[in-house]
């Protein structure tokens, strides 16, 4: 049922769910309309990184943490050039930013980039809806005049075909290959630059977050980034010592149409291979496993994951709505990590080969360094191969 605006301030934005539920609030950022899947993210920090994570293409993000926008935005924290999430839903309207790194406020930044925000929403109620009905299809509209055709918005949300079967990696990947040499941020220097001969690594960009590339550079990789549709021949032409498969948006099975043949071609060589999130799902598909859509997915920075080989628990950052069905993993492929929230698969590796991947984001540092060993493991595998 439609809800009333939560405050007496005029509603200038509304969020219509496909089931007819409507939330009214205050618009900020761009005006207009967008149709997407709605997910919730439980992270207390990192809204700029979340909005610019290419894996959120096709999704509007509800932030369960109420204070969003309070540290503004800055040019260093973008995970890619543009915000990629379709829009944002928050409890409190963004306040004036107060942070020494802020160069702009969130609303102006969103407006320039054509992304809609809605504030004044009961995000607890909305999050319960998402958990109960599964990530719903929604239409989000912002009109300073407050004129909304609710029936039309609900119809648009209903008509949207959703993420299943949708290959979005090809939309967010780079158009051309490029080199990456920036390393991780450190106080007081900021980001660094890699120098000297490193491991030749080809990173496939399905929607890569910049901090993943920085982590690779920080463990000594000379990274060449290739577009998502690169073939095995194109990858191998770079004579890589290791291949990396990035995160990315959309349905892994749809992206698998072109990614799986490439990965199979690379697996035929005995190269170290490391995948994160969509890259993990791609590796699993190439090995013959299946992926399935989750009810509402995992999106947050507080997800405990157990490393089944060491028994250690890592606090991880997650952002996925599909999962590898561990029951479908073939013989010779080990499940290495599981979620302690729901037991879902969080990592695999090929027995006796340096080929491994994780569902979570080791570059996102909520632990804060719990999962960095995965980058070191990849570098170590390339070092061992050189020594052979
Ligand atoms: N962060 C990611 O790479 C997400 C992978 C995939 N699009 C999913 O939703 O599961």
Can you tell me about this structure?
It is a single chain. With 388 residues, the chain is an alpha/beta fold. The protein folds into 2 domains: 13-159, Glucose Oxidase, domain 1 (3-Layer(bba) Sandwich), CATH 3.50.30; 169-387, Rossmann fold, CATH 3.40.50.880. It is 23% helix and 32% strand. The chain contains 10 helices and 19 strands. It has helices at 47-51, 106-112, 123-133, 150-159, 169-172, 210-218, 232-236, 252-267, 278-286, 373-387, and strands spanning 13-17, 22-29, 32-41, 59-63, 87-89, 116-119, 137-142, 178-180, 182-186, 190-193, 199-205, 221-227, 242-245, 273-276, 290-307, 313-325, 333-339, 345-350, 355-358. The strands form 3 sheets. It has a 10-stranded mixed beta sheet, with helices on both faces. Strands 1-2-6-5-4-3-7 form a 7-stranded mixed barrel. Helix 8 (252-267) crosses helix 9. The radius of gyration is 21 Å and the shape is globular. Glutamine binds next to strand 16. Residues 11-141 form the Carbamoyl-phosphate synthase small subunit N-terminal domain.
